[in-house]
Design goal:
Length: about 325
């Protein structure tokens, strides 16, 4: 695919959206990739990494050939956007989640709800199999969000497995890799390893993540190529089911202490805005929450209109 500088700037902007989503617990960068139209290209680029590495060795380290086979310009622009977003937004999002959680979660609730419509509109003719796939995705997405975090071993084999599973979840729309780590009982452990720079643990985790993402990208690419609409319906279902995780009004059932000694929610349950006010003795901010949900909705609709115009412009040029 031939791109202009303007196209790569757009890819970088999409990367910033993915980075912002990855900063939010419970929101997947894969969701943003999916709704911005770069999901399949991202999977294909990741899938080509092993082939590109083999070509690099067989061609006596021809870097230009490697860069072309791995779709280097696309990945560089995307990773640049992700990096910029994580570095610049991490502190801001942490502050907003701590001080304005209802508004933040409301915005993402509206964003993802509209994204489900955005994804499903590609299916022009519905079949029973597509409906079943959608329902299975909804059930899977919901069940993942209600599983209670568990105690798991700290052995290196499980750290490797955790890295592989978490990275796979990260590229699935609707599922947060950090949330999967929490379910596996390894979120705090990996954070602590980062803080103390435990090289062995981090290398094992990174190796698992690398092998996991390459293997899983092959599988997902095959699914999208062979069973495109079935897969799209299932992924949209996961996104819809995962809305349970980002419902704005929650009651903390169980807490834990993070690596900084700060008390954070571990298990929460969804409640109505009126119950939230009674339990917490503070406003449920329903009016402002609805405004933020509508803002999330509008962003997806505007993105859809812009994407349609860009596609039409590219076809006529």
């Amino acid at each position: 695919m031939r791109r202009t500088i303007k196209d790569y700037i757009l890819v970088t902007l999409k990367g910033t959206g993915m980075g912002a989503a990855d900063v939010i617990p419970g929101v997947s960068g894969g969701t943003i990739a999916f709704i911005t139209g770069i999901y399949e290209e991202l999977l294909s680029s990741i899938k080509n990494l092993p082939v590109a590495c083999k070509s690099l060795i067989s061609s006596k380290f021809d870097l230009r050939l490697f860069w072309k086979e791995v779709n280097g310009n696309f990945l560089l622009a995307l990773l640049l956007g992700i990096g910029i977003s994580i570095v610049s937004l991490a502190k801001l999002m942490t502050y907003l989640l701590e001080h304005h959680p209802i508004l933040v979660w409301s915005f993402f609730f509206g964003l993802i709800l509209a994204s489900v419509w955005f994804v499903l509109k590609d299916i022009k003719k519905w079949k029973l199999s597509y409906c079943v796939s959608l329902i299975l995705g909804i059930v899977a997405g919901y069940l993942i969000t209600v599983i209670s975090p568990s105690e798991t071993p700290d052995d290196l084999w499980f750290i490797f497995l955790s890295g592989a599973i978490a990275i796979c979840a990260m590229i699935l729309p609707g599922i947060s890799g950090s949330f999967i780590l929490l379910l596996l009982g390894k979120y705090a452990y990996i954070l602590a390893a980062l803080n103390r720079l435990d090289v062995l643990v981090l290398m094992v985790f990174a190796t698992g993540a690398l092998i996991g993402i390459i293997s899983f990208s092959h599988f997902l690419s095959w699914l999208l190529k062979s069973y495109k609409f079935l897969t799209i319906a299932f992924l949209a279902g996961i996104m819809f089911g995962s809305l349970n995780k980002i419902w704005p009004w929650k009651e903390v059932v169980e807490s834990t202490t993070n690596s900084h000694g700060k008390l954070i929610p571990l298990v929460e349950r969804n409640i109505l805005p009126s119950a939230y006010s009674d339990i917490n003795g503070s406003s449920s901010l329903v009016f402002y929450a609805v405004i933020m949900m509508m803002t999330g909705f509008l962003i997806i609709f505007v993105m859809d209109i812009v994407a349609a115009k860009l596609k039409k412009s590219n076809e006529t040029s």
